[in-house]
Amino acid sequence: MSRRALVEHRPWLFAAIAAATIYYFVRDWQIGELWLILLKGAGCIFLAGYALARHDGLDARLLALVMATAALGDMLIELDFTWGGAAFFASHLAAMSLYLRNPRPQAKPSQKALAVALLFITPLVSWLVSGNSSIALYAITLGGMAACAWMSRFPRYRVGVGAVLFIVSDWLIFARFGPLAESDLPQILIWPTYFAGQILIATGVIQTLRTKG
After folding, report:
1. What is the model's pTM?
2. Fewer CB within 10 Å, N- or C-terminus of the chain?
3. d(Cα 111, Cα 107) in Å, to the nearest integer?
4. Could you tell me what percent of the chain has a pLDDT over 70?
């Protein structure tokens, strides 16, 4: 889809991508902390609007809740890491509810094994890179979210991969407390991996709801 078509037919999605891109490039500018916080949250707020505009069912409203609470997390984490984590905890619970409402009719043993791996490896790696037990506890819901996404009827190469990108983004955040404390890599990669994941999740869920009900 061309940029013009995206603007005309998916204005909420275009606004989300635009807000996230602008934030990435201006986040170090001296334009006021409040404005940067609001701009950071705008990306997922627009994705919530996209979900509500593209479908009117309960699952779309749950997706909107996932994105709205993630937006709250994006903003709160700039003020307090714990409160930001609490908002993302709520977002993961809402996402798990959405995915569990939409199970995949048949799953191969290898797919089930990967879901189990996501559930257990996510908190384990989170603890290893951060050395923080509270982060590991939070990561149980992160891994649960990804595992449920992988086992849902939504396309794995969008929603499943999006959930995995979310995990990678959080691992980069946690690694700043440990092995990547002196590295610029987290600063460069956290936001792109996170928001690419959210875009994949939102578009994958909505595509399925619109084509398969």
Report:
1. 0.93
2. C
3. 6
4. 95
